[in-house]
């Protein structure tokens, strides 16, 4: 019985990792997904994320059940002026309003108690 448990473990780990993938990671990048660079150093995993136009106070980083979630909320733009006419609307919706989200499954041995975050402009 223990043999089969060990033999199927890699398969179950792969399936579990798929459960935390964003749809964009399976079918191509969604423009409302935060792009992230992930590097593993000798002492830590380092993540760098781009959140254009998001203020520090509107960024939330949480870790639950081995999944890191980064959420950036965009400030709502001013209400449209009555009688105004749009001539172009080329920016993706997430750049003008809304929310950016990224979820990343962390390695089993990740020290989630030692997580540190900083934001540079």
As for the number of domains, it is 1
| Helical fraction | 10-25%
**Mean pLDDT across all amino acids:** 75
CATH T-level fold name: Immunoglobulin-like
Which secondary-structure class do the elements indicate? alpha+beta
Work out the number of β strands: 5
Strand neighbour order, sheet with most strands: 3-4-5
**In one word, what is the shape?**
elongated
Strand content: 25-35%
CATH architecture: Sandwich
The SSE string, one letter per element, is HHEEEEHE
Radius of gyration: 19 Å
Largest sheet: 3 strands, antiparallel
User: Would you identify the regions where 5 or more consecutive residues have pLDDT less than 50?
Assistant: 24-28
Quickly name the level 1 CATH class: Mainly Beta
InterPro entries: A-crystallin/Hsp20_dom, HSP20-like_chaperone, Small_HSP
Family: Belongs to the small heat shock protein (HSP20) family.
Domain SHSP: 27-121
Pfam families: HSP20 (PF00011)
